[in-house]
Specification:
heterodimer, B: alpha+beta, five-stranded mixed β-sheet, 3 helices
């Protein structure tokens, strides 16, 4: 019997929502890591019992948690109790909550500052992991997008982390600047047809691609137009909120930018706008139907000053034509007095037939549609503010 | 010397301990010596109290003992005798912030 497991990260802990393939009755477990901010948790496509979680706190920093049994139990993979915490030479051992920027000339480049909000140089400071992206084939390999923006990789199940320093060091890193939420690397897309290719997105630097497994990177922002930066078509500086792809067509990318919904048909070499008839093209989340690569979903948000749905109506918009022509999906969603936000990592799809679509809100609701968005119902209504939603489709 | 340490609830949960922690600290009893002993016993706490690389106290973590704020003392300064003898605990506190 197939099933679905939804991994929900909130401001005050993680929750796991589980259902069989009918998706009408849900078991809810949590809060896991109660009181901590859970920016993201995600399962390995190669081993659905292997889950990784980013647990963080403004007080106590960053913790990586791992589960090997589908979320029943958790541990910090790099900190087995009873083992020495230093090497024989007395140096601290790398551990699962240790993220150190690579400033070596051989790999990264000695990059030490980026731009601050006022344009002045500011030192790179690690704050937290925004997004964890497990490898498509190896449960022990996982990527981490962090604030201040950088990409790290673990190849030992999260025990130790090394920066893929070619991204920050490719040339434009000293010009990156934080968005309102911080300077975060929030999107990591792995190309299922080419394991050397990977896409990342950074607020507010833009989108980047590697074609050699992370050694070298190039900005892929041609066609983006951002009125809020000095040069609206600059190579970097765009506030990309989220990128999505369908695994059958990894050269086709969909982007929710600060303003504008965009599309690329050439792996990011060029972008064109597909906002079409959306009532507002500001927003955070974007995703693609599991079986229809031209069917995409966004949740329009009124503006960058007013982070809630237009007119108090929570509407998912679906395009079945790859953009430009959008329909409002409202059945089961509140259509008055609704002023929640849907954050960038808070939408996901399952791969059942019909495709399930899920999103979480800053008001603590997780909504599910078991019919590709035609109708919706809340699974839970009163969680802490939802930061991220991921879905595992279980055989 | 057996040193008593209290942890904020989030860190107690992370280290899976209840109540005070008792640590055997050899040599002079300083903040650094106590934190080294704490992290050796509970490696899951590395990085949560002081930065992994610089070893500086995290901004929202404070150290108190014997009614005194020791947060800005040198990590290598001796802790009060009452802490060194185990009469009083070293209190590691999460700052009240946000409000």
């Amino acid at each position: 019997m197939s099933g679905v497991r939804i991994l929900v990260g909130t401001r005050k802990g993680a929750f796991v929502l589980a259902s069989d393939g009918k998706r009408d009755r849900w078991d809810i477990s949590g809060p896991h890591f109660a009181g901590w901010e859970i920016y993201h948790l995600k399962g390995s496509p190669a081993d659905p019992n292997r889950l990784y979680t980013s647990q963080s706190s403004g007080w106590f920093g960053q913790i990586i948690q791992r589960s090997d049994d589908g979320g029943k139990t958790w541990h910090q993979p790099g900190t087995p109790p009873g083992e020495p915490t230093t090497t024989p030479e007395g140096m601290p051992k790398a551990e699962s909550n240790k993220f150190v920027y690579d400033t070596s000339p051989e790999t990264g480049k000695p990059l030490t500052t980026h731009q601050w909000y006022d344009g002045t140089p500011h030192p790179w400071e690690f704050k937290r992991v925004w997004h964890l992206e497990p490898s498509l084939t190896d449960p022990d390999t996982v990527y981490a997008g962090v604030e201040d923006a950088a990409l790290f990789r673990s190849i030992d199940g999260g025990q130790t982390w090394q920066e893929l320093a070619g991204l920050r060091g490719h040339g434009s890193g000293d010009k990156w600047a934080p968005g309102a939420g911080g300077m975060c690397l929030h999107t990591i897309l792995l190309d299922p047809s080419n394991h050397e290719r990977m896409f990342t997105a950074i607020s507010s630097a833009g989108a980047f691609r590697t074609d050699d497994a992370g050694k070298t990177w190039q900005p892929i922002n041609r066609g983006l137009h951002s009125l809020y930066i000095p040069d609206p078509t600059a190579e970097v500086g765009h506030c990309v909120h989220r990128i999505a792809m369908h695994r059958s067509r990894p050269d086709v990318l969909f982007m929710q930018k600060h303003w504008d919904v965009m599309r690329s048909d050439d792996a990011g070499e060029s972008w064109h706008e597909i906002s079409g008839n959306l009532p507002t093209d500001f927003g955070f989340a974007i995703d693609v139907h599991a079986h229809e690569p031209e069917t995409i979903y966004v949740v329009p948000i009124k503006s960058d000053a007013e982070h809630f749905p237009l007119d108090g109506k929570l509407r998912v918009y679906r395009s079945r034509s790859g953009g430009n022509e959008w329909e409002a999906l409202t059945k089961g969603l509140p259509q008055s007095d609704c002023y929640v936000n849907v954050l960038r990592d808070a939408m996901a799809v399952d791969s059942l037939d019909k495709c399930g679509v899920y999103f979480g809100t800053t008001g603590g609701q997780v909504y599910a549609s078991a019919d590709a968005g035609d109708s919706w119902a809340p699974i839970v209504r009163d969680l802490p503010a939802v930061v991220s939603v991921e879905v595992q489709t279980l055989a | 010397m057996m040193i008593r340490v209290t942890l904020p609830s989030h860190l107690r949960k992370l280290a899976r301990v209840d109540g005070e922690v008792k640590l055997d600290v050899e040599g002079q009893v300083t903040q650094r010596a106590v934190l080294d002993a704490l992290e050796a016993r509970y490696p899951m706490l590395r990085g949560t109290i002081r930065d992994q690389v610089t070893q500086k106290r995290r901004a929202f973590v404070r150290f108190f003992a014997c009614q005194e704020d020791l947060s800005h003392e040198s990590p290598d300064a001796p802790l009060p005798d009452a802490v060194a003898t185990g009469a009083e605990p070293l209190m590691i506190v999460g700052a009240i912030a946000g409000g």
